[in-house]
Amino acid sequence: MSDLSNSPLYSPDLAPIPANKRTWSKWNLAALWVGMAVCIPTYILASYMMRAGLSWQAALTIIGLANLVITIPMVLNGHAGVKYGIPFPVQGRAAFGTLGVHIPSVVRAIVACGWFGVQTWIGGLAIYSIWNAATGAVGDPGLGVGKFIAFGIFWLIQIWFIWRGTESIKWLETWAAPILIIIGLVLIGWGMVKVGGFAEALKQGKQLQQATVTVLPDADGPGRTLGLTPLLNLDGTAKATQYRILHPDQRVGMPSNWTPITGPRTQVAIGMDPRVHVQFKDTDGNESSVIEVQADKPNCEGVGLWSYVLWFTAMVGFWATMSISISDITRFAKSQKDQLVGQFVGLPGTMIFYSFVAVFVTSAAVIAFKDVLIAEDAPWDPVTLISKFKSPGVVIFAQVAMLIATLSTNIAANVIAPANAFSNIFPKKVSFRMGGVIAGLIGIVICPWWLLDEISGILIFVSGLLGPVLGILLCDYFVIRKRTLSVPDLYAVNGKYTFTSGFNLVAVFALVCGVLVALVGYWVKPLEVLYELSWFSGFAVAFLVYAIGMRGRDR
């Protein structure tokens, strides 16, 4: 590549990595996926499905199958990275053009920067919690100075790893992986001790998939009836001993009559009020959260087949962005076998394992914590779980675990891709290090402490529209170019991948078609299936349009 070193598209960070400098084995890649997959979103995946009525067995099956499915295009798209040692922005030049590749790579980068900011704020909160637990200080419920200092500390820790380069990232992921697995096993052990056995803890999972309050069809008249199902103790008795109904003209906290619960399942008539609130209490005075009920909408229906399809699609899309930029990582792999084995061992296995940890620990928490009276209050996310422990030592251990998980996820999943993408915009001026710092700065600019929920919703929406990018990349590499790329042309200003002024208009058109298919489903309700299956529909449309558009063209 020395003859291209003066090209404006070339830089040492974007140049092909020689075979003798590719040091990542299958175990390094598997460890990388352990580090990325162990995060708060992974932990709460199963909870979303169980709260929708699926069993924990069905939830874990969907998670496992979906991650096996997404690993296939992950491995396929990583093939070019291993074969040529090139990152995603360089690989994408073959399909989108030397300038056109900025469209998907920058969008991918911005999504990663958003998640970087969100995860950095979460990591900062973990550091803040560790400080409070160690010193006995009382945490500030608002946006205190201490939280911003902790955020800054965690930001600097990550920048240190970025500045040290990819070998330090490999070191981090390799050491984090066994620690995270051990932490998962420790959590399972805690649940077994608290409940009195492995099988006994899992039995409680059935309680988590049922709604505490259901609106029942009332055959006796025009009034409405609620079915109340608080959580049960191991002996089958209800943990809550009283309930109360708050009608629309009452505010939460106003005096109202508590009614004794006579059994594990209670039915209560509420008249014709279209909306009521229900709350529970136990003998120790612990009160549940307040459940709002739309009494004019019976909700005792079962889970339909379509729900399983939608959940499967959502789980496939969980790693959609990583499947696009996976060459950023596989370029360091020693062989195709290493990237294949490493990814199939690391990704599906970790997702299933930590989702199971979440199911098991939360099921055990139903019994372990007396103040958890209803399924809606079960500590599904790690933050809520940790908040229920009073021992400073336990809190510190748990927050350190969360810190390691957040650090390993953020560095690998949300730094490498944007660092390469920003470097690709100005190869001669922006290095990998500088690109990573830019990603970190954008993570600050988005102010995740103010817009955490809104940012997450936007990022999920955009991620769901990136399926077409993967469809174009796979079609170009496997169908159009038969796994053969001209490496010199990837770095040439006037090479075969320059297309029309740096843009492959066929790829741009295919991308627009794929995204529009999903958006049409978002805007036009009768076609909403196209949006609900946006990853698949966008992928398929873009793949087909690109294959037709590139047929017969010079390769």
List keywords for this structure.
555 residues; mainly alpha; Hydantoin permease; Immunoglobulin-like; 2 domains; 4-stranded antiparallel β-sheet; 3-stranded antiparallel β-sheet; 24 helices; 7 strands
Summarize this, please?
This protein is mainly alpha-helical.
Provide a descriptive summary of the structure in words.
By secondary structure, the chain is mainly alpha-helical. It folds into 2 domains: 2-14 and 29-196 and 337-550, Hydantoin permease (Orthogonal Bundle); 212-294, Macroglobulin (MG2) domain (Immunoglobulin-like), CATH 2.60.40.1930. The protein is 61% helix and 6% strand. It is built from 24 helices and 7 strands. The strands form 2 sheets. It has a 4-stranded antiparallel beta sheet, with no helix packed on it. Helix 17 (416-425) packs across helix 18 (432-445). It is globular, with a radius of gyration of 26 Å. The protein starts with 25 loop residues before the first helix and ends in a 5-residue tail after the last helix.
Topology:
Layout: H1 26-37, H2 40-51, H3 56-84, H4 88-91, H5 93-96, H6 102-135, H7 145-164, H8 166-195, H9 198-203, H10 205-208, E1 213-216, E2 224-228, E3 242-246, E4 259-260, E5 266-271, E6 275-281, E7 291-294, H11 305-316, H12 320-324, H13 327-330, H14 336-368, H15 382-387, H16 392-414, H17 416-425, H18 432-445, H19 448-463, H20 467-480, H21 487-490, H22 505-523, H23 528-532, H24 534-550
Antiparallel strand pairs: 1-2, 2-5, 3-4, 3-6, 6-7
